[in-house]
Structure formats: structure tokens, C-alpha cells
Amino acid sequence: MTAKRSTTTLHDLPPELIATVLSHCTLASAIALSQASSRLRSITSDSPAWIEPLEAAAEAAGVHILRRPPPHLPPSDVDWDGLAAAGGRPIPSRAFVQLLPVLSRDFLLKAELPRLPNSQWREICERRFLPAVLSREVECKGEDDGSLWMKGRWKGVFLKLIGRLEHRDQTACAQEDHSCRYVVLHRKAGITRNRMSTREYDPLRVFEELKRQNSLGHYTTVQVLIPAKFLPVDVTISVYVTIGRSDAFLTNPTVMDLLDQLGGWRRDGSGPSHAILGPAL
What Pfam families has UniProt attached to this entry (predicted)? Predict the structure, then answer.
């Protein structure tokens, strides 16, 4: 007699293993797998494993995921079309909440976006843009009682800001941003907030004038970049400081402490030869 050989199908696997299989599929295969049966549809309907096929499709399609190295392989038209149409596929909304804040702007303006509730579009916006930028787009003040109310929907805010940033990046146009706000951290006078025409704002020129006013013109100017982990995706913040050997009364310990907390400056105890002097922009 021969023993009856048992077979194991995909439906017999535990949900955790099915999610692992899903994470290693291509986007097209993952969609097909998720729709193969009602059980698989139930297991994959809210699985976090969807982000891997989506990111793999983005890399294969030549779509840049922000804060990662640009794709180095020739783009695939099939993967690009599949990713661009993913918004109309049965993919969990949480995967798009993770993905949309980090995809490049040019792709987002061409792709089919998913139908998400307003609360999830708000989360996507908050992951991508600064709160001050969002407040200018969504808040309106009542004329009578001064109360705040929201204008439009969060999806519209997302598309408007993405389109504005892409237009500015491609054309150097700042027509909609008439003024630029910047902050100066003084050595003793605290913080001052300033405003200047966007077209005229040159941070290095402004900082050189601050150095001249504080008799620091012969010291070295350094641009410090704030690590990306502290910032929304489409934001880069740089700080201009003066570095040099100084007596204690010229150092700016407030700026050094702040940049040390943000990871943009390391206080290594090397003494006055390694200090931030005067104001910081």
C-alpha cells in the first residue's frame, strides 16, 4: 500500500505567511492574488504588505521615491502604467496613505489617484507639507465672529500644492508666493521673524549682511542642513551660521543647543575654536 500524499494549497497557509507571499509579488501578481478567492481577498484587504509591491513597481517604473536614491534601471512602461492605474485597483487605502506622501510630484500629477475619505487625504497632506503651508490653504476666517472654517477638501489641497511646487520647480515662478518668511536667531536678542519678496530673497546675501552688522565678516559661513527625518517630505530647511574661534561673549549657545538637538550640529567639546558666532539665519 502507498500512503496518500497530502497537498497544501495557498488557501491552507496562515494569514501571516500569505502576507509574506504578497510582499514578494509584483504589483500585478499581488492584485491577482488578492482577488483569487474570498478568503484571500479578506486576508489581503487590509494587509500592510501591500507597500512592498507598490514600492517595487515605482522603482521598476522609474518613479522616484523621495529621500531615496533615484532609480538606476531603465524604466518599464508596463510597471509605470500599472502603478499609475493602481488608484482604481482593490488596494487597501492605508497603503496609499504611506505611498502618496513620498512619490515624485510629476508622477502624482499624471497618475490615477485613489478614492479616499477626507480624513486620509488630510493625513497624506500632513505627512508631506508643513503645517503653516496647509493652514494658509484650508483656513478661512469669518468676517463677523472671526471663527475659522475650512475651504475645499483635503484632496484638492494636496493636488493644488503638488501642482504649485512642480510649476515652481520647472519654471522658477513664484507668482503665488508673494512674500518669503525667514527667522533670525540672535545671540542675545532672541528670535526675530522677517518677511521679504520671494523674488528678491537670497538667504546667503541676507546672512552676509547680518555678519557685516555684527562685525563677523572675516569669519567662515557654513550652511547646516536639518536632517530629513524631522521634516515633511517636500521641505528642506537649511541654517546659515558663522564658524570660528571666538571669546565666550561672541558664541551663540542657543543656536548650538538647538542644532545639537536636531542632529545638525555636534558639540564635541573642542572649545572656542569650534563655536557658532553671532546670529543664525
Answer: F-box
